[in-house]
Amino acid sequence: MAKVVDAARVTTPSNTVWRTCTGCGLTNPLADGVDLCKLCAESELAPRTVAEIHAATGWDIVYRYASLVGRIDAWAEQIPDVSDAERLDNIRHALKTLHPLRPGREVQ
């Protein structure tokens, strides 16, 4: 039985392969040597070079570290009426849950 995907593949040129776009993460028919779909290639927000992708990742890590420093500062000095044990537990938890290269993963 024919599928919708088969019809889409018939209408694309023979040198295109269905791959994941590096800009939006969606599967699109992309020609050899092309990493961005048409929408991402025309968008000003899509990273265009490997250096820009690495720079965006680097800034993400910097912002996460800055957020961590803010959390530690808040628990260390700015939150009133909290015991020292609770302050230390929250600071330890903040440090434990930060992993610089993998967002969303806890260090064990």
The tally of structural domains comes to 2
Largest sheet, order of strands side by side? 1-2
What does the radius of gyration come to? 23 Å
Helix percent reads: 40-55%
- Low-confidence parts, pLDDT < 50 over ≥5 residues? 103-108
Oligomer: single chain
| Share in β-strands | 5-15%
Q: How would you characterize the overall build of this protein?
A:
The structure is a single chain. The chain has 108 residues and is mainly α. The protein has 2 domains: 4-42, no CATH class; 50-97. It has 4 helices and 2 strands. The protein has helices at residues 4-10, 38-42, 50-78, 84-97, and strands at 16-20, 27-31. Strands 1-2 form a two-stranded antiparallel ribbon. The longest helix has 29 residues, at 50-78. It starts with a helix and ends in an 11-residue tail after the last helix.
How does the SSE layout of this entry go?
Elements: H1 4-10, E1 16-20, E2 27-31, H2 38-42, H3 50-78, H4 84-97
Antiparallel strand pairs: 1-2
Helix pairs in contact: 3-4
Identify the notable features of this structure and list them briefly.
mainly alpha; 51% helix; 108 residues; 2 strands; disordered C terminus; 4 helices; 2 domains; two-stranded antiparallel sheet
Short description:
The protein has 108 residues and is mostly helical. It has helices at 4-10, 38-42, 50-78, 84-97; strands at residues 16-20, 27-31.
